[in-house]
From TrEMBL:
Family (UniProt): Belongs to the short-chain fatty acyl-CoA assimilation regulator (ScfR) family.
Source organism of the structure: Microbacterium lacticum
GO cellular component term of the entry, any: cytosol
Gene3D superfamilies reported in the protein's UniProt record: lambda repressor-like DNA-binding domains
Keyword Thylakoid in record: no
GO MF term list: DNA binding; DNA-binding transcription factor activity
Annotated TM spans: none
CDD domains named among the record's database cross-references: HTH_XRE (cd00093)
Protein name, per record: Transcriptional regulator
Length: 479
């Protein structure tokens, strides 16, 4: 059965040849043995003709069936009408609930072009506005909860990464830039380092010419070139297509980050290292980090993929900024975390008593801060490391329930805190005596966080300036 577009195109081609021969509908109908009204239905794409009738029409109009069945519109006017018909049948337009424009002979080409321009803008805005802030938070929360159910473990990506590493000849130790280049080459890509990468993109992949463009040096924040290259390759390996909504975008981002982590810290070698460290009661993020030549954050996050699945240890991970706001989080050990009414945790202020914030008070920031914290959900042992980027301070924390602290270095710490959050009296309500002393006598000048006024990034790839990326690719394609 022919599609609606095929029937419409066929109808336009029949009309084109009928008019070219000077026939009316009734005149051509008389020649082929059907009523003119039946031919009208066929020309308007409402009815599919039998092959015998097509043959008769072709003979009467001096053409052949192959020409009538061509998928190409017979002229510019037909092309415009077909484009408009498709646009008005799209889900985006139909959701508006307004009637479609009926095209007649009196409708000028310019009018159709103008209407098509409005449809294109409607489609563009639909693609760009892929989420409101509330939808984005909900999508992020749903993704976090799904990963919690899976122990933050994706076996299919683990297996894919080990397969690619083996094919590239990587056998152990820290993954080298050369091995990453070999992996890219096996996928048909060349890694090119440039100093004019679009500011809105961490990397750009030229699918036409088989190039992955990367910055000449690691960007601030601990994202290495190896990781960026691996993430770009992951899109191809995982068969990603342009995201359809914000949830799809977040899922893809999680998967490419996961693939990069699997390559930099392969499952087999990582589990062997961690299992031995647990046997020695000497698990430590810093040792895991140094063994594979990655950042502290990458090592800490990778432990969330492996400790529960392979070593039976529940845990939590936090990245917290200097103001105490949670930037990134994972937990499957029931650590009580602040959350908004949607269940979102990111952006919430973590308890001041937690190790993630207490670590900022340490004088020696080069060593990890170890701490036990009593909470309404039980006692947790945590290890926190602080750092700084151009955006300010941050801390990375890995923690486990009290009983599992025996496997970790730093369990002997005497530092202990008590958190009763979400009770307001824990750290969110001022001390009563200080309130009596200063209430009504203080007028602080608030620091305005500009992100409060920033719209959610738009576009099929949120936050990426398409025009800048296309200009970049066109510039480098000439080289």
């Amino acid at each position: 059965m022919a599609s609606a577009l095929e029937l419409s195109t066929l109808g336009h081609r029949i009309r084109h040849h009928r008019v070219a021969r000077g026939y009316t509908l009734d005149e051509l109908g008389a020649l082929v043995g059907v009523a003119g009204s039946q031919l009208s239905l066929i020309e308007n794409g409402k009815r599919e003709p039998k092959l015998s009738l097509l043959q008769a029409i072709a003979h009467a109009t001096g053409t052949d069936v192959t020409d009538l069945l061509s998928p190409e519109p017979p002229n510019r006017r037909a092309a415009l009408e077909l484009d408009l018909e498709q646009a008005q049948n799209s889900p985006v337009f139909r959701r508006l609930g307004i009637p479609a424009v009926r095209v007649t002979k009196a409708t000028s080409d310019e009018t159709i072009e103008s209407i098509l321009g409005l449809h294109r803008e409607l489609q563009r805005r639909e693609r760009e506005a892929i989420a409101t802030p509330e939808e984005a938070r909900r999508a992020n929360t749903e993704l976090r909860l799904r990963m919690r159910e899976r122990g933050n473990y994706l076996p299919e990506i683990e297996h894919l990464a080990e397969k690619q590493l083996k094919a590239a000849g990587h056998t152990g130790g820290a993954l080298t830039h050369r091995s990453v280049s070999v992996m890219a080459s096996q996928l048909g890509f060349e890694l090119i380092y440039v100093d004019d990468l679009p500011h809105s993109a961490r990397s750009v992949t030229d699918l036409e010419n088989g190039r992955i463009y990367l910055p000449p040096a690691s960007i601030p924040g601990g994202h290495g070139l190896r990781s960026m290259a691996l993430q770009a390759m992951a899109h191809r390996l995982l068969g990603h297509t342009p995201p359809t909504d914000y949830a799809d975008f977040l899922q893809q981002r999680l998967e490419i980050n996961y693939f990069a982590a699997c390559c930099l810290m392969p499952e087999t070698a990582s589990v062997a290292f961690l299992a031995q460290a647990k046997k020695d009661r000497n698990l430590a993020v810093e040792d895991f980090r140094d063994a594979f030549g990655v950042t502290h954050e990458a090592a800490a996050m990778r432990m969330t993929n492996l400790l529960t699945e392979h070593l039976g240890t529940r845990l939590h991970f936090l990245r917290v900024d200097g103001a105490g706001a949670i930037n990134r989080v994972y937990e499957n050990d029931d650590l009580p975390l602040p959350m908004d009414v949607t269940g979102s945790v990111e952006g919430q202020i973590v308890c001041r008593r937690f190790a993630a914030r207490a670590a900022f008070a340490e004088q020696n920031r080069t060593v990890e801060h170890y701490q036990y914290t009593d909470t309404p959900a039980g006692t947790f042992w945590c290890s926190s490391q602080t750092g700084r980027t151009g955006d300010g301070e941050f801390s990375i924390t890995v923690g486990v329930p009290f009983d599992d602290a025996r496997w970790f270095r730093g369990r002997e710490t005497h530092k202990r805190a008590v958190s009763t959050c979400p009770d307001e009296s824990c750290c969110r309500r001022p001390d009563a005596s200080l309130t009596d002393r200063w209430n009504g006598k203080a007028w602080p000048s608030a620091r305005v966080h500009m992100q409060m006024f920033s719209p959610l990034p738009r576009g099929a790839f949120p936050g990426v300036d398409d025009g800048e990326v296309y200009a970049f690719l066109d510039r480098h394609a000439q080289e």
